[in-house]
Design goal:
- The chain has one domain: P-loop containing nucleotide triphosphate hydrolases (Rossmann fold, 3-Layer(aba) Sandwich), CATH 3.40.50.
- Strand 4 and strand 5 form a beta hairpin.
- It is α/β, with parallel strands linked by helices.
- 34% of the residues lie in helices and 25% in strands.
Length: 241
């Protein structure tokens, strides 16, 4: 378990989540400290996206507890969870294809929950200058990398304290993955806490303060990035490396 000087911003405690009768998460526990980036790794179908969906309220767990900023949010509706200061960067980006960049950014913008640094268009465009150049372009006219930038920027416009990022590097060329990693590192430096679900091991090891590995809905490893990098058995058995 990672050590922290203050209570974690997120705690997932013995969570069990189902899709109908399909038993997906089988007692998952993890935590994220304030200002930390924590990575969750694993092959496809091992429960990573279900974990994100359980936290944000799309697929509430049947058992277990999810605590955010000391408040239990298990089985809360998603919109109520988001208003506490959780931003979501979903798998597959899920931008609005018929809206332009500016409309995508402003449609869900919120003033935030008093975390001191407000995300507005100027600040977002400082992080993503390419989006400023394409502000009038519709979502379906952007490249895959630009769509991923837009998905992250849209989440930032909700002024979160905590980001859930589900496979942000999926489908991106290596150069864009490097750029994405630099962006996530920059967001962490600006005080955001991040839970990063990824299959890209080098990216996760570069960004994370702590890592968990999921297999068949269970945590099969937790430790520092260095400990995971050194464990050939875990990488071979659970990550296919």
């Amino acid at each position: 378990m990672c050590e922290m000087d203050e209570p974690p911003i997120l705690q997932v405690e013995d969570v069990h989540t189902y899709y109908g009768e399909s038993y997906v998460l089988q007692g998952v526990s993890l935590q994220v400290g304030r200002g930390q980036a924590v990575a969750v790794l694993g092959r496809n179908g091992m429960g990573k996206t279900t974990l994100i969906r359980s936290i944000i309220g799309f697929t509430p767990p049947r058992r277990g507890r999810i605590v955010f900023k000391g408040m239990e949010i298990t089985r809360w509706p998603s919109h109520k969870i988001a208003r506490l200061g959780i931003g979501l960067v979903p798998q597959g980006r899920r931008i609005f294809p018929s809206l332009n960049v500016l409309e995508n950014l402003t449609v869900g913008a919120r003033s935030g929950v008093g975390n001191g640094q407000r995300w507005d268009l100027e600040r977002v465009f400082n992080i993503f200058p390419r989006l400023k150049e394409r502000v009038t372009h519709k979502g379906n006219k952007l490249s895959g990398g630009e769509q991923q930038m837009l998905a992250i920027a849209r989440a930032l416009m909700t002024n979160p304290e905590f980001l859930l990022m589900d496979e942000p590097s999926e489908g991106l060329a290596p150069l864009l993955v490097l750029e994405l990693g630099n962006t996530i590192a920059q967001l962490k430096q600006q005080g955001l806490s991040i839970l990063l679900v990824e299959q890209n091991l080098p990216l996760a090891l570069k960004l994370a303060d702590y890592v968990y590995v999921l297999s068949k809905g269970r945590v099969v490893f937790e430790g520092s990035p260095g400990e995971l990098a050194a464990s050939e058995e875990v990488k071979r058995n659970y990550l296919g490396v």
